[in-house]
Amino acid sequence: MYDARISSLQAAVPALQVLTDPTDLAHYGVDWTRRWTPAPLAIALPADVAQVQAVMRWAHAQGVAVVPSGGRTGLSGGAVAANGELVLSLQRMNKVLGFDAVDRLLTVQAGAALETVHEAARTHGLQYPVDFAARGSCTIGGNIATNAGGIRVVRYGNTREWVAGVKLVTGTGELLDLNRGLVKNSSGYDLRHLAVASEGTLGVIVEATLRLAEPAPATRVMLLALPSFDVLMQVFQALRERLGLEAFEFFTDRALHHVVAHGAQPPFDTAYPFYVVAEFASEGEAGEVALLSAFEHCVEQGWVEDGVISHGDTQAAQLWRLREGITESLAPYVPYKNDVSVRVSAMPAFLAETQALLAAEYPQFDVVWFGHIGDGNLHINVLKPEAMANPDFVIECERVTKLLAATLERHGGSISAEHGIGLVKKPYLRSTRSDAEIAVMRGIKAALDPAGILNPGKLFDP
C-alpha cells in the first residue's frame, strides 16, 4: 500500500532518489545477520550532504525513524529496518574528495568502500592500514560507525586511530564538522569520537578525513599448527618478542574444515586442532634469521607441531585465505555469532573459561572459533543444525550468550569487540556498561537526536 509520507519526502527533497520496489526494500532493509524480516518505508539514496540534511530535517518534522545504511556487512542487526523506517543509504556518496600530501590526509564520502580507500592511498605511495575480509563491500561510514578493527589491529589499532575528522548530520539536520583533520585540538569535547562506534544513533556520517601511513614493510606470512589450546598465548608472546608482528590470527580445526570445503587447499597432510596465521615484517638476511629462529623456538618448546612460511605473494595470499575465507564459508549456515574482547593479559584465563563453557553448553552444535588474539578479540560462530528450527536455535544460543556475557563481565571484557551492539547484543549491554554510563549515552543521544528518530531500538531501547 502506498504511503503518503513518500510523496511528502519527494516534495521536500525533489531531486532525491527514492526506491519503493519490494525487491529494493528487501535488499536494503537487512544486514548480514539475516534474522529479521525487512520492512522499511522506503529507501532514500542522497547524492550529496545537502540532500542528507534535507532528508533529516523532513524526518525530524514528520517523526519518521531513519536507519543509516552503508555496505550492510554488519553482524549485529545495526542496519536492519524492520519497523517501517526510512533507510538512508549512502551508496551514491562514494567518492574520494581529496588528498593533502603535507598532512597525509585522505578525505572521502562515507559511502566509499574500504577497498577504494586502500587503492586511493596506494596511488599516493601510502597506506590506510585498517583491513579485513569485507573490504570490497563494507563502507568507511559503516567502519567508523562500528569502530571496525580487522586483522592488523595488533600493529595499527582500530578505525578510531585513523579518523582525523568527520562530518556528521544530526537528527535535526544540522551539519557538524568535527576536528577538521587537526593533530592537536584541546578546545573542548572531541565530538569526532562520539561518532565512532555510534552505530548511526547520533547522526549520519557523510564524510571522513582519514590519516594515512607509510607503506607497510615487506612481510612474510607464517601458518602454524598448534597441538593444544593452552599454548596459544605462549606462541603469541614468543613471536611478538622476536618479530615485527603485523597480524596474529587464530582459528580452529572446524574453521579450517569449512574453508577447505569451500574451495581452499588444505595446508598440511595431517589435521591439527588449532592454527595461527601470523604476518610479520621481514627484510634481508637478518629478517630470515629472525623468523627461522622464532619458528624453531616454538617447535622446540612443543608449542608448534608443523608450519609453513610463505615465499612470494601468491603463497601468502593462499595462507591468508585460510583465515579470511572463514566468514564466507560459514555464511550458508546462517551462524549465530558472538564477537567479544578482553584485555590481552586477561586472554589466557578468559579463553580457558570460555572453552569449558562452550564445550559444556554446545555439545550438539558445530562451534567455529577464530579471532584476533593479539588484540584480545574472539569470534564464536555457532552453526544451526539443518533439522532445527531457527527460532529454537536462536533461543538456545541466547541462553548461552547470557552465560558468556557473565563470563566477560568477570574478566572486564566487552560483548562487542568490533561489530557493534545493534539489535543482537542489546540485551547484554549491561555486562559491558554500567547503568551510569548508559544514562550518559542516552543523554548524548537526546542532545543530537532530540526526536529519537536515528536508528531507534539499536544499542539500547528508546
UniProtKB/TrEMBL annotation:
Its cofactor is FAD. GO terms for molecular function: FAD binding; oxidoreductase activity. PROSITE patterns: FAD_PCMH (PS51387). InterPro entries: FAD-bd_oxidored_4_C (IPR004113), FAD-bd_PCMH (IPR016166), FAD-bd_PCMH-like_sf (IPR036318), FAD-bd_PCMH_sub1 (IPR016167), FAD-bd_PCMH_sub2 (IPR016169), FAD-linked_Oxase-like_C (IPR016164), FAD-oxidored/transferase_4 (IPR051264), Oxid_FAD_bind_N (IPR006094). SUPFAM superfamilies: FAD-binding/transporter-associated domain-like, FAD-linked oxidases, C-terminal domain. It comes from the Bacteria. GO terms for biological process: respiratory electron transport chain. Belongs to the FAD-binding oxidoreductase/transferase type 4 family. PANTHER family: D-2-HYDROXYGLUTARATE DEHYDROGENASE, MITOCHONDRIAL. This is FAD-binding oxidoreductase. It comes from Luteimonas deserti.
